[in-house]
Design brief:
This protein is mainly α. It has a domain of 127 residues. Helices cover 74% and strands 3% of the residues. It contains nine helices and two strands, in the order ββααααααααα. It has a two-stranded antiparallel sheet. The radius of gyration is 23 Å and the shape is flat.
Length: 258
Amino acid sequence: MSQGTGEGGEPLAEGTLVSHLLELRDRLLRSVIAVAICFVPLAFFQNELFTLVARPLIDQLPEGTSLIATSVVSPFMAPLKLSLICALFIAMPYVLIQVWGFVAPGLYKHERRFAMPLLVSSIVLFYAGMAFAYYVVFPLMFQFLASTTPVGVKMMTDIANYLDFVLLLFLAFGIAFEMPVAVVLLVVTGLVKLDALTRNRGYVILGIFIIAAFLTPPDAVSQSFMAVPMYLLYEAGIVFARLIQKSRGADAPAPSES
């Protein structure tokens, strides 16, 4: 890789298109190998893993009922699919490190200093959103849904439908917890002014509840459990963005006297 010069005379790594493609191939291959390494042990315990994920619903099912499989291959394919997705989630920090290693040489020093904490915080917040969904939202939501089952109807959910449902909620809550990162990016990149974010809180609350209504089941409990943390994280993002702006103002050089 040759060295180029960016703004302020700062050297940047440069290379040919072929060298970039080769590096991208190597990093993609490492990522796939990491996911495969995580998948192999999970595949041996795929049934236990599915039972763990299904526990919030199993605990709320009426006595004498259980999850069912309406397809011949569902008892095998649903746990296997869950194992693969869990392997991807577990290997995600390493995959993002590979992405960072590919992108970082083309960034300036101040951009790398800002992007790395943002990357780490986004990973932590995504996992926090998934944990919040599993330990807080799922038990209360399934308890509410089980209690509303009409008389004469047995709640017996198909395992493939259940898996798709909870994976969608895991993804939704993981993305919802990225709210502080999104707010900081909007402010730091200059796309939105901090004053505009603080002045339009009413519209933000309305938008958050609309998004939560689309991403969660049609009940007020699960909708509130997504909307309220999203708004609190929105306020946290405003606080962090304000701190970053203050630190940038403190680091700015003072104007020279004429």
